[in-house]
Design a protein that fits this description.
394 residues; Rossmann fold; eight-stranded mixed sheet; five-stranded parallel sheet; 19 strands
Length: 394
């Protein structure tokens, strides 16, 4: 199993390094830790020693039983170095060739892949000196994990928060520790996700229960496979996947139609996963509709059929649709496959909307039907792309 060296610096997010170490250990990785003196003021070395099951190095001049030069041995031992949190200070040190403690010395002595997971005050994060240092280090091959937006220790809601620990581990695993073959390298993939909202007035709209989880899972898998991914998304509460080529936020079916048709010709693969409203109110009220005696009648008109238009327009693209049904699932999906000129359709029960799992049938143009039992949507996304890759290879 791979060896991971964690560098913990004196940012307030230092306490989160404990969770990163715990996640890595549970996955079976060997972990060693170097802490700066400032980091020990936030979380104790004993905590990280317990979690990593290795002695934590804090002092460059500490005497111990090892006869080897420790900063060289640690640099050689590691397969990957992760600095989390990576402060303004440590980035500046490495960028300017300063090696005045154990962590900066090990980084300077290492030729292994090194990741800086940034976390700091928003003003420091936006400082042009930091940006210049990052650009300089990137030119030498160092990797950076951007900070997220969130509530910071300085009592502001802004960018500078350490990325979620699971995501940090996921990024390192995908790129270094357990790289996924880039089977879609050079391919352009367009994915629609989420629901659409059809406004009635400034307050009300028609919509559905789609959470967008399936479409976002597909986007993440496509990114992992090396594709240039464009995600066209209706309203969701999901985090935008890291590594997208383009993210397009839309609201209504007409908005989504325009965004998709503008980009479709340049794509190699298109997956229509969004739950698009078939109808919209014929008349939109620019003022809130007030309650009155009697019933309210809203006349609906058809929205453009995005998938049908892609099917009519496609040339060499692989086109994949979804069929969320409540009855006669396979029969209805087959009809949609033919009518909309699809290469493949994913059929599932509409009850799986908003769930984190899904059970599906993949139906191909050649008549193949592949059923898959219920499992997490990220795993379902992998199954779907396995079949798409087979279509490419055929």
């Amino acid at each position: 199993m791979k060896n991971i060296l964690i560098g913990v610096t004196g940012g307030i997010a230092a306490y989160k390094s404990a969770n990163i170490i715990s996640i890595l250990r549970k996955k079976g990785y060997n972990v060693k830790v170097i802490m700066t003196e400032s980091a020990t003021k936030i979380i104790t070395p004993q905590t990280l020693e317990t979690l990593s099951r290795n002695r934590v190095v804090t002092d460059m001049w500490e005497r111990n039983h090892q006869l080897e030069v420790e900063h060289i041995s640690l640099a050689d031992w590691a397969d990957v170095i992760l600095i989390a949190p990576a402060t303004y200070n440590i980035v500046g040190k490495i960028a300017n060739g300063i090696a005045d403690d154990m962590l900066s010395t090990v980084i300077s002595a290492s030729k292994k892949p090194t990741y800086f997971a940034l976390a700091m005050n928003v003003n420091m994060y936006e400082n042009p000196i930091l940006k210049s240092n990052i650009k300089k280090l990137q030119s030498f091959g160092y990797k950076f994990i951007e900070a997220d937006e969130g509530f910071l220790a300085c009592n502001v809601n802004a960018k500078g928060r350490l990325k979620n620990e699971l995501e940090i581990v996921e990024i390192i695993e995908k790129e270094i520790l357990a790289p996924i073959p880039k089977l879609l390298s050079g391919k352009k993939v367009l994915i629609t996700a989420g629901r659409t909202e059809e406004p009635i007035d400034p307050i009300r709209y028609l919509s559905n229960r789609s959470s967008g989880q399936m479409g976002y899972s597909l986007a993440k898998v496509a990114i992992d496979l090396g594709a240039d991914v464009t995600l066209v998304s209706g309203p969701t509460n999901l985090e935008i996947p890291h590594g997208l080529k383009e993210f397009v936020r839309v609201r209504s079916a007409v908005n989504m139609f325009d965004a998709v048709m503008e980009r479709f010709n340049t794509q190699n693969i298109a997956i229509a996963c969004a739950a698009v409203a078939d109808y919209r109110p014929k008349v939109y009220s620019s003022e809130k509709i007030k309650k009155a005696d009697g019933d309210l009648v809203i006349t609906l008109e058809r929205n453009p059929d995005i998938l049908l238009n892609m099917g009519e327009k496609k040339t060499s693209q692989i086109l994949v649709g979804f069929a969320a049904e409540t009855q006669n699932i396979e029969e209805n999906a087959k009809k949609k496959l033919i009518k909309k000129n699809l290469d493949m359709i994913v059929a599932n029960n509409a009850e799986n909307m908003q769930k984190s799992t899904n059970s599906i049938q993949i139906i191909k143009k050649n008549g193949d039907i592949l059923p898959f039992n219920e499992q997490p949507k990220n795993e379902v996304a992998k199954l779907i792309f396995n079949e798409i890759i087979k279509l490419i290879e055929d």
